[in-house]
Amino acid sequence: MQKTAKSVFLAIAIVLVALLPAACDLDSNITKINAEELKRLIAEVPGLVIIDNRSGFEFSYSRIPKAVNIPQERFSSLATLLPQAKDTPIVFYCRGYNCDPSAQAAVAAEKLGYTNIMLFSAGFPEWVRKGYEVEK
Question: Considering the entire predicted model, what is its pTM?
Answer without folding.
Answer: 0.79
